[in-house]
Fold this sequence. Notes:
The structure holds 2 protein chains of 2 kinds. Chain A has 2 domains: 9-194, Thiamin diphosphate (ThDP)-binding fold, Pyr/PP domains (Rossmann fold), CATH 3.40.50.970; 251-360, Rossmann fold (3-Layer(aba) Sandwich). Chain A is of the alpha/beta class. Chain A has helices spanning 16-26, 41-54, 64-76, 87-102, 129-134, 150-167, 177-181, 227-248, 269-282, 300-304, 322-330, 350-360; strands spanning 9-15, 31-34, 57-60, 81-85, 108-113, 143-145, 171-176, 183-189, 251-254, 261-264, 287-292, 294-296, 312-317, 337-342. In chain A, helix 1 (16-26) packs parallel to helix 2 and helix 3 packs parallel to helix 4 (87-102). In chain A, helix 4 links the parallel strand 4 (81-85) and strand 5 (108-113). Chain B has a single domain (5-185), classed as Pyruvate-ferredoxin Oxidoreductase, domain 3 (3-Layer(aba) Sandwich). Chain B is 40% helix and 20% strand. Chain B has 6 helices and 6 strands; from the N terminus they run E-H-E-E-E-H-E-E-H-H-H-H. A 6-stranded mixed sheet of chain B has the order 2-3-1-4-5-6. Chain A binds chain B through residues 13, 38-39, 121-123, 149, 177-178, 181-185, 268-269, 271-272, 274-275, 282, 347-352, and chain B through 1, 22, 25-26, 29-30, 34-43, 60-68. Chain B: Residues 13-184 form the Pyruvate/ketoisovalerate oxidoreductase catalytic domain. Chain B: GO terms for molecular function: oxidoreductase activity, acting on the aldehyde or oxo group of donors, iron-sulfur protein as acceptor.
Amino acid sequence: MSEKPITGEKRAFMTGNEVVAWAALAAGADIMYGYPITPQNEIMHYWTRQIPKYGRKFLQTEDELSAGFTTVGGVLAGLKAFTATAGPGNTLMQEPLSMAEMMRLPVVTVVQQRGGPSTATVIYSQQEVTLTTLGGNGEGMRVVYSPSNHQELFDYTIKSFNTAWKYRFPTFVLGDGYQAKMRESVTLYDPEEKGITFVTPERYVGKPGTPGVDRDPGHYRNTYNTEEELFEVLQQHFADFEKMAPEVIEYSQESVEDADVIIIGHGVVFRGVRDAVKELREEGLKVGYFRPITLRPFPAEQLKALATQGRKLLIAESAQGQLARLVKDAIYGATAEIVPMFRPGVGITTEQIVAKVKEVL
Amino acid sequence: MAKAVKICLAGEGGQGVQSVAEIIAAAANAEGREALYIPNFGVEQRGGVSIAYLQIDDKAIGAPKFDKADILVALSDRAVRRCKQYIDANTVYVYDTSIEGVEEDLPKEGEAKKVLAIPALEISKNELHPRVFNILIMGAVIGATKVIPVEAAKAAIEKKLGYKFEQNPKLRELNFSAIDRGIELME
């Protein structure tokens, strides 16, 4: 039962949902809780297909509220627990996930964004950025990774378990319907063979010994009696988040030094951004890119340093300005011009980005 | 630097365009190339036009979908109408000769690089077997694009359908003839 799901390196050709299931197996996740919703269903299909061999577990709940709360429960019991959802399911899940924020529970959630609002499309969007980065009531004390290809989907799903358990903030892998359903190559590996050490999960409840005698009592609260009490607790959360931020923030940038236009894109849209920059540079045009990999915490300082006078920041996203909001907040006070390229709920191709850059250059 | 080969396959649900794209993609991957295949999918489970987007390249592939296809195969009247947006002057356009009532919707002179009508449905029905219609189409795609060698395609078919061939070796022969015949159609 303790046999490793992956040994050595294995080049595979599969869907993103399958990649997530393999990554969770490789990361040593103990249990998945979930409720079906397109386009993430196959995560639980592949997970349940593989787990009998490796002694892991799955629980299908009656809805996403319950899936979120059972994931919270799994974590309280000291299990590496995760869930996956999309669209309206993501909306429902924010209630348990804000509880996870309040109680500092390392819940891992994979989101495969679909069109919104409401049922909208089952296909694709980047319209769950605001929801996933900021969550429900509260202050959005969470980590959100935005992968752009299957390799990153594998890498960051593995990483999210360690980030969550190390810093004790809910952690998200924000994919989308395209990444969920498309097939491309990926190299699966055993993380420990790559030198990745897993943070050992720890029980919150049911610890051995007598509370107050052998150990401190476990006192995990999501309810406070006074304003001051809550305020004080939150200050500690903010301080921890701020301390963590430089350690988890990830981004990439290229050809920005002399760029007249810097294209900003995240997730699957970044693929087109990267190719557009390559193509435009070959034509001798001064174009670069900045890509946030963590959307929360956001690489604000790094982007602000690029947002200088006379430059244009072209923001390409499959939403009506959700990434743009993060960008504007990050570069407040900078004088670069923002050029929107908003395509809510539809894909953005390399050709479209190239054409847009030529229009604004 | 060569650009990715962009292939768009469109037909009725059940015509097998998704399997064709998946097999070609898997074959290209097995050859060590980069491939990306994405189906269109929506809330309708049946009765829609099924489209497969496939790209093959020697380097990492960009956006999963594209504006214009290098080769577009349309296998029904609705597919012909639905896929007009993916055609430009560089597109090799392939459609089945049996499709009726689409004269107005086919690319006109100069709108596509080439327009080819192939009797795939008829050949599969009369010479082979209706079941291998999509494999014949796969042959046509490979013949038109040369994205993968025929051996790689056959190996990928073997991998996907090998368990059926075990039970009925004639099926293997039938599939392989279909792919050869599809390639021939493009010569």
